[in-house]
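User: My advisor, Dr. K., asked me to get a structural model of this assembly before our group meeting. I'm new to this, so sorry if the format is off. These are the inputs:
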Amino acid sequence: MSGGAPDAALVRSAQGGSDAAFGILVNRHQQALRGFLRRVCRNWAMADDIAQDVFISAWSKLDQLHDPDAFRSWITGMAWRRAAAIGRSAGRRRAREASWVEAQDNGAPEGISTDDNMALTDAMAELTPDQRACVALCLAGSWSHGEAAKTLGIPVGTVKSHIARGRARLLEALGGDNDA
Amino acid sequence: MTPEDTLNAFFASEDAPAHDVEFSLAVTEGIAKQRLYQTLSRRAAFAVALGAVAWAISPALGNLGGLLSSPVVLITAVVAGVGAFAPQIMDRIPVLRATRL
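Assistant: The format is fine. Below is the predicted structure of the whole assembly, which you can bring to the meeting.
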């Protein structure tokens, strides 16, 4: 199975029992899924744990995926539901604190001042989980509003307003133009 | 640097590596464990079913088996005999077949 094969072909092969095909799917989507979860959870270790669980769960439920083209949406939807469930638990406060400590420990990423990094970290933490998810998919990622809406299970209009508000809040944190 | 550039740099800093062998290995290991649990649970269910069948037919077998004084011995022999061939039997039944390693 070629690493350049489309998702649908890989999914069908994996559904037929090919571990190699599923491995390619994991390698192909791990970066985006972990990035999404890191932005939603604000805790990298927790995000990576959830991503790992999601891929394992996806493997065992692969027969339930009826549209092989929708693998990306399917795993991201699973990840979102898990992250949301964890976010509702008592672990949310700890996750935010861990995120803040992590941001301090890691220092500012290249091209960003420490102040801006901390401001954006705080601003992301202050967004609602839905807003963070929309920002993570459509601003940080390049998802269409429609695909994000379908994946997150919310109307397209709500996705658009979450993105506008989230973007405004983040730019406001940078002291920039906060007009949505 | 505009706020938009800063925002993009911030998002980029949260990306995981494009290739992460450690993560892929962790997923592979998790899948192997899941597969083992599934195989064991299927085989355990099969063994329980076999035991129930053996228990259910033990009176009939006991009547036939004048050679054996104890039904327990007979049941044990039947279960052990079928159990010894369980993997081969299960591999011929699609529902019970263990996923390929």
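One thing worth pointing out at the meeting: Chain B touches chain A at residues 1-7, 9-20, 23-24, 26-28, 30-31, 34, 38, 99-100 (CB under 8 Å).

User: Perfect, thanks a lot.
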